[in-house]
């Protein structure tokens, strides 16, 4: 049992990692195709399983909140109700019971109606509220307290003005060269920003290599649960 | 002055919300039509599509949800009109759960578009021959690898359950390698995966439309030419609409372009708010310092 719980996952992780790594060094179309067929099928199966796991976990979380009347349980009840409605509407084979144009998620179905008339406006509203919060937060918290904060503030202001049409109109003539907020914003995005992003990207990728090696050699075992 | 500063620094957030609301609303009601030019990142994407021969195939991945309709859906429309106008065939698909219907809606809207007199703009377009919508498939990168092998085995049916094998388009276009161009319209972090798992592997050029928030992180890919073009946020989309000539095509000011005035007003307000708040913040610090010394 201990072998199944501890050693076997490490063996599988090592072999899967080795296979994917080795494939990059085999310059053959056949090798690429074999790997792609294998990984694409397995990854789709795993993504489907993860989706089910996520749904069950969310249901359990909200059900427990409702059951034990924890704070905010009313929102959990609404979540569960909406989830049930959407699943029933999306899954029920309406065409079997003689109701046409309601099956699955096609155009004109009830599911589609819910998506178009409820989900889209609600999702768009949630995202658009960000503009209000950002404006309020910028007014309250964006202070030039240190050199770093000042640099961030100045570049943020330039990019904000430069990324709207008004930024093009706000141009200055410096030694015969017209410099607009848009051109300065473009320079910031193409130079300091790109340099920093490359650094971050390289750091992240090197970390991924390190963590992958730790997983392959069984040093990192937290993915199995239970710590260590 | 100190009292006024305190009032400003402790301004009720509802007043800020109201000003932001007015900054969005008023320019929509009374458009200023501030002119703008196209940036090189957007021109590169546009020119690549323009350079494709009639009959070429563009794969569009609609990796966005309803929350980013103003940035992504508008781009989808502009790109589709550009393709259909040039007789470029389109295969669209989706890698995010909440974007599947939007991809279908957008494709139908463009393909069946009727200009103001009520004539179909592209009457010869045929579903399955000139365009197709594959819908959503779970798996992300696995789907990219899958279509690298075969469209029909990864997506046996399209969004409306029609078999792909019966469509003339997929008799010719078997896998991603047969496609001429990939355009990822994304609000999530899929663009870099399109580079690793699709564009570089199959040697198909890729351009990206992303949200303004994520545009900054993609500049390294644009500079290395892994992204041939980068259309960032609603401003980038407005530039693309201008290049495509969407106003002439649809007979009204297109949505992203219409939003530019509001975006200008909100950005200017936020910048002014930051400057004013900082001014009074430092005045207050100075005043407090003077008081402390006197005490």
Provide key terms for this protein:
heterodimer, A: 228 residues, mainly alpha, two-stranded antiparallel sheet, 8 helices, 2 strands, 74% helix, extended, B: 295 residues, Rossmann fold, 2 domains, 14 helices
Walk me through the structure.
The complex is a heterodimer of chains A (about 230) and B (about 300). The model of chain A is unreliable at about 95-105 (pLDDT under 50). In chain A, helix 5 (about 145-160) crosses helix 7 (about 180-190). In chain A, a hairpin with a 2-residue loop joins strand 1 and strand 2. Chain A has a domain at about 140-220. Chain A is built from 8 helices and 2 strands, in the order ααααααββαα. Chain A has a two-stranded antiparallel sheet. Helix content of chain A is about 75%, strand content about 5%. With about 230 residues, chain A is mainly alpha-helical. The two termini of chain A are about 20 Å apart. Chain B is an alpha/beta fold. Chain B has 2 domains: about 1-25 and about 260-295; about 40-255, Rossmann fold (3-Layer(aba) Sandwich). Helix content of chain B is about 55%, strand content about 10%. Chain B is built from 14 helices and 6 strands. Chain B has helices spanning about 1-10, 15-30, 40-50, 70-85, 100-110, 140-150, 150-155, 170, 190-200, 210-215, 220-225, 235-245, 245-250, 255-295, and strands at about 55-65, 90-95, 130-135, 180-185, 205-210, 230. In chain B, strands 3-2-1-4-5-6 form a 6-stranded parallel sheet, with helices on both faces. In chain B, strand 2 (about 90-95), helix 5 (about 100-110) and strand 3 (about 130-135) form a beta-alpha-beta unit. In chain B, helix 1 packs across helix 14 (about 255-295) and helix 4 packs parallel to helix 12. The longest helix of chain B has about 40 residues, at about 255-295. The chains are: A mainly alpha (about 230), B alpha/beta (about 300).
């Amino acid at each position: 049992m201990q072998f199944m719980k501890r050693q076997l996952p490490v063996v599988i992780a090592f072999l899967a990692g080795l296979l994917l790594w080795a494939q990059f060094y085999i310059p053959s179309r056949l090798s690429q195709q074999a790997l792609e067929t294998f990984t694409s099928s397995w990854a789709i199966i795993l993504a489907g399983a993860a989706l089910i796991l996520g749904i069950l976990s969310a249901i359990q979380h909200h059900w427990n909140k409702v059951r034990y009347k924890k704070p905010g349980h009313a929102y959990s009840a609404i979540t569960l109700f909406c989830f049930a409605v959407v699943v029933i509407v999306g899954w029920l084979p309406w065409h079997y019971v003689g109701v046409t144009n309601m099956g699955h998620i096609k155009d004109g179905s009830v599911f589609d109606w819910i998506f178009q008339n409820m989900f889209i406006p609600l999702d768009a509203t949630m995202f658009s509220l960000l503009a209000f919060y950002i404006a309020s937060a910028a007014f309250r918290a964006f202070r030039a307290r240190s050199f770093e904060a000042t640099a961030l503030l100045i570049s943020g202001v330039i990019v904000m003005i430069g990324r709207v049409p008004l930024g093009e109109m706000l141009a200055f003539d410096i030694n015969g060269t017209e410099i607009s907020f848009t051109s300065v914003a473009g320079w910031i995005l193409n130079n300091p920003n790109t340099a920093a992003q490359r650094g971050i990207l390289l750091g992240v990728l090197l970390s991924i290599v390190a963590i992958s090696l730790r997983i392959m050699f069984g040093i990192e075992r937290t993915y199995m649960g239970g710590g260590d | 002055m100190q009292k006024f500063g305190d009032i400003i620094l402790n301004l009720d957030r509802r007043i800020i919300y109201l000003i932001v609301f007015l900054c969005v609303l008023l320019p929509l009601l009374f458009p200023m039509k501030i002119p703008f030019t196209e940036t090189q990142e957007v021109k590169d994407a546009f020119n690549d599509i323009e350079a494709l021969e009639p009959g070429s195939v563009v794969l569009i991945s609609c990796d966005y949800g309803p929350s980013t309709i103003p940035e992504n859906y508008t781009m989808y429309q502009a790109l589709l009109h550009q393709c259909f106008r040039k007789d470029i065939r389109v295969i669209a698909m989706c890698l995010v759960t909440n974007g599947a219907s939007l991809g279908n809606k957008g494709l139908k809207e463009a393909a069946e578009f009727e200009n103001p007199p009520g004539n179909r703009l592209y009457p010869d377009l045929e579903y399955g021959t000139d365009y197709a919508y594959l819908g959503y498939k779970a798996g992300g990168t696995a789907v990219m690898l899958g279509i690298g092998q075969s469209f029909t085995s990864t997506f046996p049916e399209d969004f409306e359950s029609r078999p792909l094998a019966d469509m003339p388009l997929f008799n010719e276009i078997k896998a991603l390698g047969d496609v001429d161009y990939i355009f990822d319209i994304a609000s999530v972090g899929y663009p870099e995966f399109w580079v690793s798992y699709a564009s570089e592997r199959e040697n198909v050029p890729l351009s990206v439309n992303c949200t303004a928030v994520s545009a900054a992180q993609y500049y390294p890919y644009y500079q290395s030419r892994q992204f041939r073009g980068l259309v960032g946020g609603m401003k980038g989309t407005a530039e693309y609409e201008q290049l495509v000539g969407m106003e002439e095509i649809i007979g009204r000011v297109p949505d992203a372009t219409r939003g530019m005035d509001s975006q200008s007003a909100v950005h200017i307000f936020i910048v002014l708010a930051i400057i004013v708040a900082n001014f009074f913040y430092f005045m207050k610090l100075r005043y407090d310092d003077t008081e402390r010394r006197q005490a």
